[in-house]
Write a structure and sequence with these properties.
alpha+beta, SUKH-4 family immunity protein, six-stranded antiparallel beta sheet, 11 helices, SUKH-4, globular
């Protein structure tokens, strides 16, 4: 397909839906803008399932909302007023985009909580996303309510049954229900919350269900995990990025006057002041804890034996410990494992932080990939680009990184 034809096809949802899957053919690796992104998201979730044109419009709309392409979603709605459901909001990992959150690998639990005045919140709990609270109307994340302010709504408090009202028949549903999606949670007013390992969404019915399984249902093809824009590896580390990966409360930022006076490496000092350092990190059996605190970091001195500033400690599991330090002048990161001699662990502190952040950013995709995603391969490539040492198990540093990376490239979310 010629580039101009590709752009024109995906720019107009009406043209795309009218053309149908037969007009798509073999798609080139890139091109198509936000419409291609929305299409790629839709077919990734459908995973080859056959649906009608109207129902595919619902999935195209879903893809646009997942990606934040709200203007494109509006074009889809205008092009397909007969679509059977629409996405109200979604907190969902896009296909081909490696992001720390949402990561609902290991399963998620969704509840509706109500206040005495009738206000409602959606509560989400997941192993790696923690506890999150959402405004059910907008999807805005809100602080956890005070204890006793909201109580869990009984599942059967809403008269409509999600399975019956949304899908008609669990055995032979009129609408496609992805196998990965958990049981729908009724919110009332024709709205339902769905969750799976890649995210949570609230959807609502737009009209009557088809009389039976979708007439004219066809497969809308497949697309690679195509995603536009620079990869996070190509963008600077900043406070927001570290907060997303590690959690705002688990990032230590220190003004220059609160950093160790002995730390002379300017890029490291700037990183600590602007972006910060992770206080805590965990994957598989390994954990890392920062040695510095807001109150005491300025008093940290180089150790007498090696002249290195202590930074933190890895508990590598099975009585295996790695003490991490930074060279005060070069910024290089060193490790002492189980009382041995120091060895180079990362070229600088920024690389060290980027590697830990990359594990979190690829974690959900490695454990819960979309069809066609090669997250494990892409993670190893990114780690190698950040620091070749990290993927060289013949070096002491690479041997430790291999152990840390195994949590996502070799093991499941359950650790085996």
């Amino acid at each position: 397909m010629a580039p101009d034809d590709l752009e024109n096809l995906f720019a107009s949802p009406a043209t795309l839906l009218a053309a149908g899957p037969g007009a798509l053919g073999e798609l080139p690796a890139t091109g198509g803008g936000m419409g291609r992104e929305a299409f790629g998201q839709a077919v990734a979730v459908l995973d080859g399932a056959e649906v009608s044109r109207a129902e595919f419009a619902s999935w195209l709309y879903f893809g646009a909302r997942v990606l934040g392409h709200d203007a494109y979603a509006g074009l889809v709605a205008a092009a397909a007023p007969d679509m059977p459901w629409r996405t109200v909001w979604a907190w969902w990992r896009p296909v081909g985009a490696y992001r720390a959150q949402p990561n609902l690998s290991g399963g998620a639990h969704v509840e509706v909580h109500e206040a005495a005045d009738g206000r409602a919140l959606v509560k989400l709990e997941a192993m790696w996303a923690g506890e999150r609270w959402f405004d059910p109307a907008t999807g805005e994340q809100v602080p956890a309510p005070a204890e006793g302010e909201f109580t869990e709504r009984p599942y059967d408090a809403v008269a409509e049954a999600a399975e019956d009202v949304f899908f008609d028949d669990e055995e032979e549903p009129a609408l496609h229900w992805p196998e990965t999606w958990e049981e729908p949670v009724p919110l009332g007013g024709g709205r339902f919350a769905f969750a799976e390992e890649r995210g949570i969404a609230v959807v609502e019915r737009c009209g009557d269900l088809p009389a039976g399984p979708s007439a004219g249902a066809v497969g809308w093809g497949t697309d690679g995990p195509w995603f536009a824009g620079p990869a996070p590896a190509e963008t600077p580390l900043d406070a927001g990025r570290l907060a997303e990966a590690f959690g705002e409360d688990w990032v230590l930022r220190l003004a220059p006057e609160r950093q160790p006076a002995a730390l002379l490496h300017s890029p490291t000092r700037e990183l600590i002041a602007a972006a910060g350092l992770p206080r805590w990190w965990a994957a598989g059996v390994a954990t890392f804890s920062m040695a510095w605190t807001e109150e005491g970091a300025h008093r940290v001195e180089p150790d007498e034996q090696h002249g290195l500033l202590p930074l933190g400690t890895f508990d590598l599991g099975y009585a295996d410990t790695g003490l991490v330090s930074v060279h005060p002048e070069t910024g290089a990161v060193w490790m002492v494992r189980n009382g041995g001699e120091p060895f180079l662990f990362a070229r600088d502190v920024e690389t060290f932080v980027r590697l830990l952040e990359a594990v979190y950013r690829f974690m959900g995709a490695c454990w819960s990939p979309y069809p066609g995603e090669a997250a494990k391969r892409d993670f190893v490539r990114e780690a190698a680009a950040l620091d070749p040492l990290s993927v060289d198990p013949a070096t002491p540093g690479g041997d430790v990184w291999e152990h840390l990376f195994a949590a996502i490239v070799e093991l499941s979310v359950w650790g085996y």
